[in-house]
Amino acid sequence: MNKRFFILSFVLLLCSFIPLGYVSAAEANEADASTELDIQLSPNDYLFQVPNMKPGDWAPRDLKISNDGRQDFSYHVELANTTEEKRLFNELIIEVADGDEQLYKGNLPNFAIPDRSLDVGEQEELKLTVYFPDHLGNEFQGLETEFVLIFTAEGEEDQQDSISVGGNVSNGDGNGTSGDKGGASLPNTSTDIFTLLLIGTILLAVGGSILVIRKLRLIKDHRS
To answer: Annotated region Disordered: where (predicted)?
Structure first.
């Protein structure tokens, strides 16, 4: 009886690992397939973050595009407005250049550049510049626009991989110097630190209370 029970338990244990192994293999194959085509950007969050741009200002940026996958690809770029406000979006000018070669210069809504290609392990750097036209008047004070540049790589058998980088431009209040900060602003960490300290204090207080209660119970039990 004990021998049969041992054999049955061993068989059930082996069977329980079969689905796990199958799922793990499937996930591994899926992960491997996803890396066949891999386009990467640097920076990969915000390329433009200009909070106080004035007429006549411009903000140049360098964007690196890399092929980190396992096959050559061609890629195309789209630019899309991500806010309901379109007045400033329609007026801003963007220029894209590859070294001395200008790929596009015009307003945001009509953005288009020719498809480009990258071999495995290659990367290229494009220079993008946003211009705030100097003819824009007071009606654009306080306006803000957000947009996104979407890079889509296309490989063999209709495989695609997309990545995007954002842009945020505003006129602010129209006073002071250009707000071009060259990237994202630093995060405010003071609130996070205070929250962590508060949580730590509460946990220490709760832990101390539990220890005191347990100590009192031990004393009471000892006396009784």
So the answer is: 159-184
